[in-house]
Recover the amino acids of this structure.
């Protein structure tokens, strides 16, 4: 089986009881909300990755304030050519603050909108599991930097 590893850095940015999220544009046409962030370039430091990715997806210049934790997911998925892939995603999650810039949407990227959402309304959003991971890390600040029991894929809106 083909093996794939993706290392990425993500931002948890909470201000005035609202969280900054970016809306993914998935290949299947769905558009769930996620944490701003994304894949590291070869040789890039994850600290620099979260700054770059947050700016690309939201327009804000962010300042990492704390390393909240590391989340790892693993799944098998079909590939267009060749055998299925054994995928592992290593997600480095930072708490960040806005240091400058203005809210704007990404164009020609993996997201199409950026917006602030009240924390108490997050459960009603169509979102990826990473949003719940990030919020749990931010709220609980586990010494191990790890949370368990949160679905790794989409979390449907609350009824």
């Amino acid at each position: 089986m083909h093996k794939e590893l993706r290392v990425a850095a993500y931002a948890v940015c909470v201000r005035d009881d609202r969280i900054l999220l970016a809306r993914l544009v998935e290949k299947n046409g769905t558009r769930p909300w996620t944490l701003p962030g994304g894949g590291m370039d070869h040789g890039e430091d994850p600290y620099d990755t979260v700054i770059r990715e947050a700016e690309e997806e939201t327009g804000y210049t962010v300042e990492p304030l704390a390393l909240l934790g590391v989340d790892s997911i693993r799944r098998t998925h079909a590939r267009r050519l060749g055998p299925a892939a054994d995928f592992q995603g290593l997600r480095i999650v930072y708490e960040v603050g806005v240091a400058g810039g203005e809210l704007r949407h990404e164009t020609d990227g993996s997201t199409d909108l950026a917006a602030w959402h009240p924390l108490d309304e997050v459960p009603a959003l169509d979102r990826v599991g990473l949003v719940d991971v990030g919020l749990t890390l931010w709220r609980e600040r586990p010494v191990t930097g790890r949370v368990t029991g949160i679905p790794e894929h989409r979390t449907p809106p609350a009824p």
User: Anything to note?
Assistant: The beta strands are 2-12, 14-15, 18-24, 33-34, 37-39, 60-77, 85-101, 111-118, 127-128, 154-155.
